[in-house]
Every structure is written in structure tokens, then in C-alpha cells.
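Please check our next protein.
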Amino acid sequence: MKYRKYLALIGMGLIFVACGPSSEEAQLARLEGQRDALTEEIEILKQEIAQKSSPGVKQEKLMNVKISQVEKGRFQHFIQVQGTVESDHNVLLASQSSGIVKKIHVNAGNKVTKGQLLAELDGSILESSIAEVENGLKLAETIFERQQRLWDKNIGSELEFLQAKNNKVGMEKRLATLKEQYKMTKIFSPLSGTVDEILIKEGEMAVAGMGAVRVVQLSNLKIKVDLSEVYISRIKINDFVHVKIPATGGEFDLSVDAVSQVIDPENRTFQIEMKVPKSEAGIKPNMLSVLTINDYTNDEALIVPLNIVQETGQEQFIFVAGQINGEWIAQRRSIKTGKSYIDRVEISSGLQEGEYVVTFGYQNLADSQKLAVVSDSK
């Protein structure tokens, strides 16, 4: 009956694995725990069978348990969040003036260099105005030069000289203004990169200030993540981060490069950034990333399996095994725990290094109960 009950419990455990969290680490830990439980149950059954095979010997009933010695070790806690790949240089270029799109010189996906002409609007009216002003400027310059020579010889009036000079300067300024306006009919790339999208079409009207061409520089990518404000004192520059890119299947390790010290009042989060190494090919802006961030490390932690910690109300306790007169005795011990991760938890008080904790068979123990140690892990 006891054996059938155990098989039922194992069956429930198998169902839990199938329906539990998708974390591979947690699933592996549960499966290993079930394997160990089966092994220990087999040993316990062997001992019970051996005891029954010697009916002439009266033995005291002992609780079969497994114990493990507590040692200090490195405990790390991680948080898992989603982030977005962004480019330091992701520019949506807009036309500076309104007009009909005359020519688009690039296609989406083309590589472009800084200062390269991407598209131009119809500037024929401005071209005519520039040609007209240039002709007028030539005449104004000729008149000014003649007045300059006469004025140098003290011939003619000062007023005529100043009028000629003012006319020449005015034409120069007007020409410069027209050329600037004509330049605004052209869209140039402010950086070297890749044309990501083109939002205008030849022959259509482009409106000043509206997006026309997007240029992205893929050589400077970064990942941005919004974290809850509760982590702001725990995340620091150079903290370890493991990154997964689901779209490409790529995985790599980074470190935190920047930590914002300002909380967003709307969602109570702060932002961290990590630079993507140029060696990671195939990563594009706006791709989803899954990050596992190490937010806590204790190199001198007392660590025990999470499942052995029991609770009654506000009390947390475990069973410790100690030897008295050569016999193993169970001792109920109140403890306080720190952080936990997957199947491990750190003990902040109530336990000393070198003590033995009961890791199997602890569910039905009572304080001061005698034990039969099945496995002694040291």
C-alpha cells in the first residue's frame, strides 16, 4: 500500500512536469529530484525488506532519511525580462519643403554614405528664379564696378555709388536665399547606413516635415529594457546579462552599459542599456530579446534545496540531523531564508556551515526522532 501511494505521488509529479513552467533549468531540476526520490525510495524499501527478513530480531523503528552537509558557496539570483533591439542611429528623414517628388535615387536596402542625395523634389520654379537673380547680379556687379572706378577718381556722386553697392549686396543675399530654398528640395543622408524604408513616391506631393526616407546604421545596435523600480538598487553597470534573440536563435553574454537613475512616473520603471557586439550578425532594430540578468550574488552563502524548507504560519523551519551517542537524531530548526532561485535558497540565519540537513524523508519527521541515514552526502 505504501509503495502504491508513492507511485501515485510520482505520477502526480510527472503531471506537474508536463504542465509546469517552461524554464528548462527548473524542469531539469524537478526531473533530477524525481530521479533521486525514486533511488532513495528503492533503498528504503530494500532496508524494510531486509528488516522483515529477520523476524527473530526486534529492532526499533527508525525513519529512513537522506542528509546533506551544508557548505558555503556562491549563490546567484537572476531576473528574466524582455527587451528591444534599437539602433543608435535610426533616422527618419523628412522633406524640408513641400512639393512634387521629382526623383528618388535609392531603393530600400541600399547602402548609402553620409551626404549622399536620396531624393529630390521639383525645384524648377526656384531654378528659374536663381537663373534670373544670377543675371541680375551680373548687371549689378558691372554697375557697381563702374561706380567704384568713378568714385575712386572723385567722379560722380556718393549717392550713386552707395545705390550701386546696395543693389549688388541685395542681389547677392537674394541669390543665397534662393539657393538655400533650392537645397531644401533635396533630401541628403546625414549618416552612412542602410535605407530601411521609403515613404514617398515619385510624382506624389511631399509635405514639409513629414517622414520621407528612413536610414538605419546597423553597426551600432543596443538593447533597451524597462525594469520595475524595485530593482533600481540591485542593477549596476557591468552586471552580467545573458541574451537570447528568438528571431535568430542567437545567444550571447553582455554586461550592463548604462543604468537610468530616473523613474518613469507613468509606469514606475527605469531603463538599462546593453551594446550589441558587431560580431553578432543578423540582428535588426526592433527585434525582441529575452534577457536573464544577474541582480544578486553572494559568494559566501549557505545554500539548501528549496523544497526542504517548510512553513507553519510565519515560521520557516527545516530538519537538521545530528549524532547523539552514535545515533542520528532529527532536530527541528527555525530558520530565515534569503533569496531563492529555481530549486535553491540561501539561509540567512538558523543554520551553520558543516551541519547536516535532511533532504529526503523530512515530510513526516518529528523533533528528536531517531533516523536511519540512507545516504550521507559530505
